[in-house]
Each structure stands twice: as C-alpha cells, then as structure tokens.
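Renewal narrative, Specific Aim 1. Our central claim is that a sequence can be written position by position from structural information alone. The example that follows is taken directly from our test logs and has not been curated for this report. It begins with the structure tokens describing the chain, in the order in which they were read.
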C-alpha cells in the first residue's frame, strides 16, 4: 500500500466574505509551500518572506531576478571549480562572520576572506549595508523555491 504525504495550507482570516477568493489563493500558496518544504500543515501567515514570493504570479520574474543577481558567481564557480555562491550564502546567513563561515564550509578562514573579496569584486558590491545584501538574500530564497 502506497502512502503519500498530506500537505495542508491555510489562508488568512476573513474580515468580509468578499475576501474569500484572496484567502483561497493564499491557502493555495501555503499548500505549495508545504509541499516544497515538506511541511504537513502551514498557515499563510507563518510563511515569512515566502508570503511575498509565493504571491507573485509571474514566476519568470523570480527566476530572472535570481539569475541576474547570481549568474556571475555561478558561472565563475563552474569555470574555476570554486564555491563563491555557497560562500556568499553563508556570508549572508552568518552576517559576514568569517569564523562561522569557515566552520560551516570546512574552509580555512584565510580562504573565506579571499573568497569574500573575490565575491565583492565580481559583484562590484561591497555588501556592507542591508540594502546591498538584501537582494542577494532574496535571490537565495528564490533559489530554495526553484529547487
């Protein structure tokens, strides 16, 4: 007997019956999220930034944004057998802490420093402010959705 997982998505609370379609669309987004991230049940209100990303109807916008932001690193990684994209991910995740990045990637701290400088050069971005980091953080959220 084959058992498949059950995924449940809940929309938002209605204030008026005219919001029924909106709550239904949000419930569909929550179900998609639940399937994608192997959750049994999820409420739209608990999806965080994914509320916005799953509400975008034109998925090509998300794909284009991801590629626009990260293709430089992806191509460099493929050409040089490096891990700049992965290093950038951990750089953002650990708020630039070389020690935490080195620990998570099993890489020497000097290598981490070199990679971060290479990333900044390739992206032509210092990654010093939230405004500079935020688009790349969103790109990694999009990457999780695209898998």
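The sequence written for that structure reads:
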């Amino acid at each position: 007997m084959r058992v498949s997982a059950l995924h449940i998505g809940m929309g938002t609370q209605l204030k008026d019956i005219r919001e029924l379609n909106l709550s239904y669309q949000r419930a569909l987004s929550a179900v998609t999220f639940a399937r994608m991230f192997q959750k049994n049940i999820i409420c739209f209100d608990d999806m965080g930034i994914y509320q916005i990303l799953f509400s975008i109807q034109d998925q090509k916008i998300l794909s284009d944004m991801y590629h626009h932001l990260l293709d430089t690193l992806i191509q460099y990684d493929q050409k040089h057998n490096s891990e700049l994209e992965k290093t950038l991910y951990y750089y953002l995740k650990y708020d630039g802490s070389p020690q935490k990045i080195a620990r998570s990637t099993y890489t020497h701290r000097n290598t981490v420093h070199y990679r971060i400088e290479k990333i900044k050069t390739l992206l032509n971005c210092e990654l010093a402010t939230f405004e500079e980091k935020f688009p790349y953080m969103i790109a990694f959220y999009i990457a999780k959705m695209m898998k």
